[in-house]
């Protein structure tokens, strides 16, 4: 009985950990419990509670009230004061933290204890909200760390040994029990189960896995035991690459934020200078009393501080990155989200990006006296020993048609042409179509039957009509191989990389947004044009070497503006680096492409690209809204202070309230 419950218990534990990871249906609403668990939020709320109690006791217990205010100042302002002092000591610069602490202490010095405490409370609250946005983003992006497997059950010489993940090597055979985490990237060797891989790909539903299917480290096995053959080391796994990207994402900030940080120091010094000038100069120049001058200086110090301005950018970018992570799009930093918003052209690689990257058999043309199933069975028997993608396509087609694949004899490669072997005493060979020679297209009109028989086969009646058939198939963007039996041409097999199901919809959505779409490929122009017609891509650049792709990306940038390059292969890496933003394919992409890319499409769903560009544009609009609002409030409050005698409490509420509104506006993008 205990043995039955153990797998279920393990699965519940794994699913509990998985529930904390980003997924397409998780975390769309603010988690108020997590917000209250934030230490800065607890300090802010504690400070606010003490402020209310102190205000209530002030008419009856003046000394106690002041003591409570002092504690409220310490609880709410200690962290900010520490940050401000560290900036002053280490960087010899002023920041908004010191300005706020100075303003609150100044208010207390002239008897406005409650106003100073209110300033501390609201300032701490706005800081806590910004901290929550940061934590939320990092949690949505890097909570995968909690799913990092530590050990694996490796099978060696018939024995099962528990080993560390770092000790695994490609070729190792692992046993993954029901409910356990997949410890490494690999291929299912034996067994079947369903895998919850939302932590990697963002897919909301579990995916069935059988022998030959790929599995990824950090995903959760379902109810069946799996034997998995390791294909990548721990650091080379998709999971390992994600962790590295998370570290980069947490370290990088947008260019606009860097500018704001530099501006903050300069602006803070100006505010301090004007404050001192008001305190020292207005009694002499305008005849104000010292108390009046000091009061207005404190109000100015509060309302002129750039809290809202500083908070206009990062909460927005972090929220946008967080929501993108839940959709399976991982950014290496806020700067790339910022650049994504400016995208004018999306340039797709063809193979593995607009297409699946795996060829499939589309046509089998046979001589009139040749049985289609017999031909396919014989060719599959020979190709079964080859790992070439075209060979695997033929073997897969035979499996789909439930054709028994026999053992071939005397199989050998024919250098520069193809492969041959003996099946049932007949020497079969398959290779390039250059054996066809020159054919007469006029004769083809009467000789080729373009009407499939009951088995779905097309036939050629004569032996001299193959040329036009081959040309027609190649004109459709297909790769054609010639099949020979005992030296006589008996058939053609055409294969083509299949278009991704969502490719046409992805292109349509991008063009509807006003974004131009281009295809950059090293494939032949004829094949590229066929894929372009099926997907709706209007700009096609074919026969490109990796260096040519870079030049074309640069030309597109110069002609149209910022370019988003989407690719999956090693040959795409230079173009990904040259583009304004490079996006790699997470599941099918090479390690080099993922290394160079600025963002990764974890689920390979290119239809999400339009969404993420829209999200980046929404983030950019939100930043502009925030900055305009923040500047307007600051200028209005400064003018009101000197022209209309704005009270300190009103200045505190107006300025810090605008900061909170700016942060909350940014948090909307978490939805």
Automatic annotation (TrEMBL):
It is found in: Cell membrane; Membrane. The chain crosses the membrane at residues 49-76, 96-129, 266-288, 294-318, 627-644. Residues 147-247 form the P-type ATPase A domain. Its main location: membrane. Residues 1-31 are annotated as: Disordered. Belongs to the cation transport ATPase (P-type) (TC 3.A.3) family. Type IB subfamily. This is Cd2+/Zn2+-exporting ATPase.
């Amino acid at each position: 009985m205990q043995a039955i419950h153990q797998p279920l218990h393990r699965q519940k534990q794994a699913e509990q950990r998985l529930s904390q990871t980003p997924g397409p249906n998780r975390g769309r609403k603010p988690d108020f419990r997590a917000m209250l668990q934030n230490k800065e939020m607890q300090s802010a709320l504690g400070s606010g509670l003490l402020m209310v109690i102190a205000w209530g006791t002030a008419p009856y217990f003046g000394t106690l009230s002041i003591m409570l205010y002092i504690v409220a100042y310490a609880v709410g302002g200690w962290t900010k004061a520490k940050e401000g002092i560290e900036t002053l000591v280490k960087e010899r610069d002023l920041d908004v933290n010191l300005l706020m602490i100075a303003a609150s202490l100044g208010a207390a010095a002239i008897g406005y204890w409650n106003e100073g405490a209110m300033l501390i409370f609201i300032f701490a609250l706005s800081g806590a909200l910004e901290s929550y946005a940061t934590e939320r983003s990092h949690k949505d992006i890097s909570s995968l760390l909690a799913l990092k497997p530590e050990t694996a059950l490796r099978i060696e010489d018939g024995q099962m040994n528990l080993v560390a993940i770092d000790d695994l090597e490609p070729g190792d055979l692992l046993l993954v029990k029901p409910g356990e985490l997949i410890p490494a990237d690999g291929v299912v060797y034996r067994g079947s189960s369903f895998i919850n891989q939302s932590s990697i790909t963002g897919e909301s539903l579990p995916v069935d896995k059988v022998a030959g299917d790929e599995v990824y480290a950090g995903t959760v096995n379902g109810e069946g035991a799996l034997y998995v053959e390791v294909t990548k080391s721990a650091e080379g796994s998709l999971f390992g690459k994600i962790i590295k990207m998370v570290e980069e994402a947490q370290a990088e900030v947008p260019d606009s934020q860097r500018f704001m940080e530099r501006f903050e120091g300069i602006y803070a010094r100006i505010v301090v200078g004007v404050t001192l000038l008001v305190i020292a100069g207005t009694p002499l120049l305008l005849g104000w009393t010292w108390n009046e001058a000091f009061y207005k200086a404190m109000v100015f110090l509060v309302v002129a501080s750039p809290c809202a301005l500083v908070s206009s950018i990062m909460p927005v970018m972090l929220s946008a990155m967080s929501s993108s992570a839940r959709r399976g799009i991982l950014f290496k930093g806020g700067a790339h989200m910022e650049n994504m918003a400016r995208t004018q052209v999306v340039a797709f690689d063809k193979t593995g990006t607009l297409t699946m990257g795996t060829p499939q058999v589309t046509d089998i043309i046979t001589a009139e006296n040749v049985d289609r199933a017999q031909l396919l069975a014989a060719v599959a028997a020979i190709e079964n020993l080859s790992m070439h993608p075209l060979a695997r396509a033929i073997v897969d087609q035979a499996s789909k048609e439930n054709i028994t694949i026999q053992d071939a004899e005397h199989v050998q490669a024919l250098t520069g042409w193809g492969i041959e072997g003996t099946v049932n005493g007949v020497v079969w060979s398959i290779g390039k179509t250059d054996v066809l020679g020159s054919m007469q297209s006029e004769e083809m009109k009467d000789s080729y039957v373009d009407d499939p028989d009951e088995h779905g086969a097309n036939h050629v009646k004569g032996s001299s009509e193959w040329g036009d058939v081959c040309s027609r198939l190649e004109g459709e963007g297909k790769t054609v191989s010639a099949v020979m039996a005992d030296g006589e041409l008996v058939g053609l097999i055409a294969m083509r990389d299949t278009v991704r199901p969502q490719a046409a919809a992805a292109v349509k959505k991008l063009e509807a947004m006003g974004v131009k779409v281009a295809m950059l490929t090293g494939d032949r122009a004829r094949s590229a044009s066929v894929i372009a017609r099926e997907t709706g891509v209007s700009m096609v650049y074919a026969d490109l070497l990796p260096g040519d792709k870079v030049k074309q990306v640069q030309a597109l940038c110069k002609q149209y503006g910022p370019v988003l390059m989407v690719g999956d292969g090693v040959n795409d890496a230079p173009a990904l680096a040259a583009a304004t933003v490079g996006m790699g394919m997470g599941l099918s992409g090479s390690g080099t492409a993922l290394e160079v890319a600025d963002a990764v499409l974890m689920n390979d769903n290119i239809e999400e690209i339009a969404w993420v560009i829209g999200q980046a544009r929404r983030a950019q609009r939100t930043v502009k809204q925030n900055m305009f609002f923040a500047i307007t409030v600051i200028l209005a409050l400064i003018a009101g202070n000197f022209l209309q005698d704005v009270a300190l409490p009103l200045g505190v509420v107006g300025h810090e309230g605008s900061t909170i509104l700016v942060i909350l506006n940014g948090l909307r993008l978490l939805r």
